[in-house]
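Task 17 of the worksheet. Students: predict the tertiary structure of the chain below and write it out as structure tokens. Keep your answer in the requested format; marks are given for formatting as well as content.
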Amino acid sequence: MRCFFLCLGILLASGEPAAAATPDARLQARLDLADRFVRLPELLRDSLPPPQWLRDGDQLVFWSGMEPDSGTWVLVNARTGAMKPLLPGAELRLQLSRLVGKTVQLPRWMDFAIAPDQRGIVFRFEGQPFGLSLSDGRVTALAPADRAALSLSRSNLLSPEGQSIAVQREGGFAVLGGDGRTQVERSGEENYDWQLPDKAWSPNGRFLMVWRNDLRGVHKIPIVDYTSALERVTLVPYVKTGTPLARSELYVVEPATGRVTRIPSSEGETYDWFAGWRPDGGEALILHLSRDGKRLELWAVEPSSGKRRRILREERLESFVGGLDFAVEGWARQVTPLPDNTGFLWMSERDGWRHVYLYDYAGRLVRQVTRGAFPVHRVAGVAPKGDAVFLLASADSTAPYEHLFYRGSLKGGALKRLSPGSGMHGITLSPSGGYYIDAWSSRVQPRIRDVASTDGATRFRLTTADASALAELGYKPPEALTVLAADGVTPLQGVLYKPRDFDPTRHYPVVVYIYAGPFIMVVPWNFIGNAMSLTANAISQMGFIVMMLDARGTPGRSKAFQDMNHGRVGQTEIPDHVAGLKQAAATRPWMDLERVGITGHSWGGYFALRGMLTAPQVFKAGYAGAPGALEEEAIINEPYLGLPSENPAGYQAGSNLSLAGNLQGALKLMHGTSDENASLSTTMRMADALIRAGKHFELLIMPGQPHSPQPAAARYYLDDINQFFVRNLGDPR
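Model answer:
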């Protein structure tokens, strides 16, 4: 879709004119530099695709992006440390050139999967699937309907015995047998689709669990296509606070017989997830979270009969058990069945920290497995034999957010740290449980991949990222920041980004890059950071000091830390950032607190507005991108505020609309017309409130753009943010 940009309401509260249509050469050079910094990952040479373990033999395959084996796949024996390319990179290019009938150049990396028969890998090049043999390095073209080719898509699920494959199709699904014939097929209807969940196959491949999502009764928002004079409107399901949720129906599919049976639904309005199977395949496990996030239940389903039984219920009536972070990824970490089928591990914050608990399948608590004033983030795995359990946790008190790797026991007791480096670790255990891949980085260490044994006896290097191009650009890691929250007691962690030509004798305007949503941490603890920290660093290159902070109410620490703003979202976050600003500047004279701006996107857009309207004496300029609002999506708001009918005062206190008259500084809003995450109505309502209050502001509408503007529009958006702050905060002095 072509993108057009319309800038409305260009009068500023300060009375300054709008930016010139074409920046001068000096400003353009700074804008180009900022764009290079937001695209730092492109300069990092790394072996990006995740390595894949073979089912047997403690062997793995990884794509090598570094010398001496750059541009091909390498087979690794974890027991011996031996590494051998499947074929030289030049040979891979030659074979592919012959198969496609032209000379080809390989991309920096190619995604791949282990073939269903475990004898090779499958990958896609220029849209066509290929196979590569592990034994002789021969590349073959695959038919699109080949089971190996279909297994490349993560939405398609191969059965455990490797014969049948469940294929996700638009609105529906099909199960194809080993002979390629369709065993079961279902088509969807508008807003009533079928969905294959992760871990859908039973261990013996007899049954398949499938969701059907009913959005027909859900509120719809209009998305308008403006590409022609005859506008087209699409109504997109969007559950706003207080409106009906989507309904999830669970079905058991038996491909051999073609039987498709619906499982009785849970009572009340819930968010539902498929959590996997007991190892013997006797029962499937289902999670149900109440819409207010206060009750989480684990149910078991007997696939032959369809009978359901509740195993356990966890409630937290004074706050919540799960919210948006749980809905996005937490549910997949909630339940870990033990290999011997005697019970499962359950994650809970009942003692004030996220820890691991052992239950049997009757729902009886056996014991608490981990304890301490730290959170466990994930059970990375359980040893097939013995009582070893492997965890990612923040058990180092000096690094409250770092994800470190530990070995523990199902019997409880102290944890043994296995990861040698600081920062953020991602762990992938081998099928045998004897080895693991440790992919990690810190703020100062580019990503490293190691292979190690779980007994701690062996460890060797797999890959090391090359960050030399970043150093040549002038990249420096952010400065760590520790301050106290507005309560004067609670420590908060943050970072400061500086221009690459930073001079401590000068005085720099300051920009707060904010998100502050109660379901995500934004301060980076790894090397490359995240999309928001990349943007913050890019903005700093314009001549600003940019601060990021994880305020009270965000996850990753104690339950009490996150609950500090429960029921009163919007009331503590800006005071925490203001307190952090003042403490940071008290020992950093190069931070000019007379010239402070604030910006953020999505939930950060809501808080950028919040800063301008609740602390106008601090923030002189604010840019709010695609701002959310408390009336918007239910899963984003209700677990943290309660239902609107139960906490009307909290919703009113957190609303920005009634505060429009407080605006003093320069303000700009941006929104894409095709945004399905934060509906355009949030910006329209805010604009209306500002107009009614007689407050001038700028508005950038980006036709056809989704919640996160796409590449060309994303550059336009970043340039617009940067020019706005240069215009309103000025240069270093």
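Marker's comment: Confidence is low (pLDDT under 50) at residues 1-18. The longest strand covers residues 591-601.
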